[in-house]
Amino acid sequence: xxxxxxxxxxxxxxxxxxxxxxxxxxxxxxxxxxxxxxxxxxxxxxxxxxxxxxxxxxxxxxxxxxxxxxxxxxxxxxxxxxxxxxxxxxxxxxxxxxxxxxxxxxxxxxxxxxxxxxxxxxxxxxxxxxxxxxxxxxxxxxxxxxxxxxxxxxxxxxxxxxxxxxxxxxxxxxxxxxxxxxxxxxxxxxxxxxxxxxxxxxxxxxxxxxxxxxxxxxxxxxxxxxxxxxxxxxxxxxxxxxxxxxxxxxxxxxxxxxxxxxxxxxxxxxxxxxxxxxxxxxxxxxxxxxxxxxxxxxxxxxxxxxxxxxxxxxxxxxxxxxxxxxxxxxxxxxxxxxxxxxxxxxxxxxxxxxxxxxxxxxxxxxxxxxxxxxxxxxxxxxxxxxxxxxxxxxxxxxxxxxxxxxxxxxxxxxxxxxxxx
Length: 421
What we know:
It comes from Cryptolaemus montrouzieri. It is a multi-pass membrane protein. The chain crosses the membrane at residues 98-121, 133-152, 164-183, 209-233, 245-261, 273-292, 304-324. This is Major facilitator superfamily (MFS) profile domain-containing protein. Pfam families: MFS_1 (PF07690). With 421 residues, the chain is mostly helical. It has a single domain (48-189, 198-420), classed as Growth Hormone, Chain: A (Up-down Bundle), CATH 1.20.1250.20. The chain has 17 helices and no strands. It has helices at 2-18, 30-33, 42-70, 73-92, 96-124, 130-133, 135-159, 161-185, 200-203, 207-237, 244-249, 252-264, 272-289, 300-327, 334-362, 364-378, 402-420.
């Protein structure tokens, strides 16, 4: 919801400062009144949006180490409380400085929630079911984006910034209550002491782990560049400029694409590395075609392709990272998902910063072409994820001993009934 709201809010503040001596302005959006030369303002907006990813990048290794030591529940709870504080700051913050602080809190919260959530799923979902069940969690992300962008744009236009973020704060408060209730009922943080504890530095030396992680980061970069640049590009290159609500609704196609890709990517009966290669090509070509559209409606197809690409990559490679950890005789997943979140955070940190400046230096068209070609150029590396012929038909996902799956089921059966009595 930040993406469709904050650009207009920032430019409203800036133009009000410039035109404070005029009291008879029209009530239309300030961005729509003066959009000429607006590309020069991408840097300020890019810095604000990137601050979240920068803080998330800094906190990610700390959260990963913490989860390895204390489990997942406490970091997730504290991350949710930070998210609540961030939402309240977005609601009542008026200055650029307060918005930066709110965005930074958002980043630390995302680090805690993402790593603890993925680790919790990897711990309790059997390996053969991960490609089908773990992507369901990505559906929450897709649903949030799908609803958040248009709802944020429409609510901002009709009710204002404060009311919109207060509603989000109420939803976060309800989620915190659910977490406290579950923590009292179930012991979901049983830490296995006999499992190897692989550090992030150890994983950096593993070729397949690095390729899978970098693929997630590269595909995410496309979306990270689009988010701050598309609203400004629309306002500066289409006449009349689109209304506020459309600045959020323009992201609906990629949200639908991500939702479909993340839910059904694990069910495609093709080797997973081949699927990843195909969708990265689709994402690259879609990125190159974004600046070629002549109307807002024509953005739907390339946006859908980009969202589908990112969704399928997440659905395939995030569960694969957990399988790689088990192949190294470790069931402590904090390290590998720390690495994965660092790749995503780096994409969302550098994407808005570099993208915002690149639009001004080389133009939006060349920026999207470069991002698209980067996706296509990475594709040959995905061949390295092809599993050596061992009679396994599951492509790059190596087979895990059936006993580990049985142990997982038994541990769940032993844990939950005892704690629910």
